[in-house]
Amino acid sequence: MNFSKTGLLAVSLAALVASGCSTSRFSSMDQEQPAPLQAAPSGNVTANQLPPPAAPGTADPSKFPTAPQGTLDPQVASLPPDGTAPAGAPDLTAGSVAGVWKASVSGQSCQVATPQTKFGAGYRAGPLHCPAPIDGIKSWNVAGKQLTLYDENGGTLARLYSSGGEKFDGQTSNGLPISLTR
One Pfam annotation, family name (predicted)? Predict the structure, then answer.
């Protein structure tokens, strides 16, 4: 007998398809299906009005952890009351700020990414599991000795200054201490 290559390929392909149809892999699908699960019980739903939001800067200070009177949080350096840079604070560059930082706001920690991706008047920023108000950081920029973190509308959320090495200290716009370290 003389088979052509095309004929041999057709016979091989037919045998392969036929063998695939006779497999027992799908035989379990023909069996009876289990009974559907019962719906989980649920309670009654009620509607209540939420209290009105607090005006910016009027948060109840008793809701935030504080250090005992007369002590300073050792993680956050104090800033001059007029908001100017502390003595000896170095000038900043975008390159010195770019990266991922561990942020601490009133004793709560999270991470903030500060890539050098242009965004608005500065650079994009990304908070990760951060408490208010820095959970709303969308951008950042440097000017002289100051690092400023901004919200989505370009409003200032925090101002920080280098306190040496890989650390920044400052305050949020509502007066909470904030520090960034890496």
Answer: Inh
The domain 94-181 is classified under which CATH number: 2.40.160.60, 3.90.1580.10, 3.30.460.80, 2.40.128.10?
2.40.128.10
ω into 36 cis (within 30 of 0): no
Domain boundaries, the chain: 94-181
Separation CA 76–CA 120 (nearest Å) = 29
Q: For residue 48, give the 3-state DSSP assignment.
A: coil
Bigger pLDDT: 2 or 140?
140
Asked if residues 20 and 12 have their Cβ atoms less than 8 Å apart, the reply is no
Q: Identify the residue whose tokens are 């903030």.
A: 112
Q: What is the pLDDT of residue 121?
A: 78
pTM of the model: 0.55
* Pairwise CA distance, residues 134 & 89, whole Å: 23
